[in-house]
Amino acid sequence: MISDDSLIQSMCQHHLFSGLDSKQISNLMTNAHRVSLDAGSVLFHQGDVSDRFYFVAQGKVRLYRIAPSGHEKVVDIVRDGQCFGEALMFSEQRHFPVSADALSNSVVIGFENHAFMTLLKNDSHLCFALMTQMSQRLHSQLNEIENLSLQNALHRLVNFLLRELEVSGGSMVLDVPKRLIASQLAIQPETLSRLLRKLSDAEIIQVDQKNLTLLDKSRLYDLATDNQPLRSA
């Protein structure tokens, strides 16, 4: 059983666990497993049985698919305090549709799907709270699908930067290789580098090695809404 108070406190900030009381948390942690991953280590492969979901306690985990051509497509990069694989609990799909590996030395906590579903079956209030949170996430994911399918490379990058910079307060660290960000945005790595240079030349952002700072939020919003073209200052 995992009884790390700081870990449990971090978990309870996540919507999957925020509605659980201390007894429910204790029951869930009884069969939870802590997994330590070195950078590059694989947690599971696409097609493996999906009998549990994971919480990232430390580090970064990459979720990716292998196309029939053999090319990798990054689906998501999951960071501290985030979960992945939980949606499969509520579907008939019994195998992971993606692979997962560690981008840095990481610690993840695996929870048995059956144990969590038992908690939900015994607490209707918890079910409704979780449905509300997951509906909000679904809305966010639908926006992401629209972003990838209907917008061009610049718009995808601009919307990505707006989301990340909003969370980080105006500055961020590009803490994963640019090729992975490019794959996540469905653009070529050289296109990503070129667009970042253009945004920097236009004095909308400042890029100093891995540090990115927002200089002109209104112009970045204008680019996201097609109100103005990208031109140098």
Mean pLDDT: 87
Cα end-to-end separation? 58 Å
Structural class by SSE content: alpha+beta
**Helix fraction by DSSP (H/I, runs of at least 4):** 40-55%
Largest sheet: 4 strands, antiparallel
Q: Order the strands across the largest sheet as they lie in space.
A: 1-8-3-6
* Mass-distribution shape: globular
Radius of gyration: 19 Å
Unreliable stretches covering 5 or more consecutive residues: none
- SSE series: HHEEEEEEEEHHHEHHEEH
Instruction: Give the tally of β-strands.
Output: 11
Number of helices: 8
Strand content of the residues, in percent?
15-25%
Could you give the topology of this structure?
Blueprint: H1 5-11, H2 22-30, E1 33-37, E2 42-44, E3 52-58, E4 60-66, E5 72-79, E6 83-84, E7 99-102, E8 106-112, H3 113-121, H4 124-150, H5 153-168, E9 171-173, H6 178-184, H7 189-201, E10 205-208, E11 211-214, H8 217-224
Antiparallel strand pairs: 1-8, 2-7, 3-6, 3-8, 4-5, 4-7, 9-11, 10-11
Helix pairs in contact: 5-8, 6-7
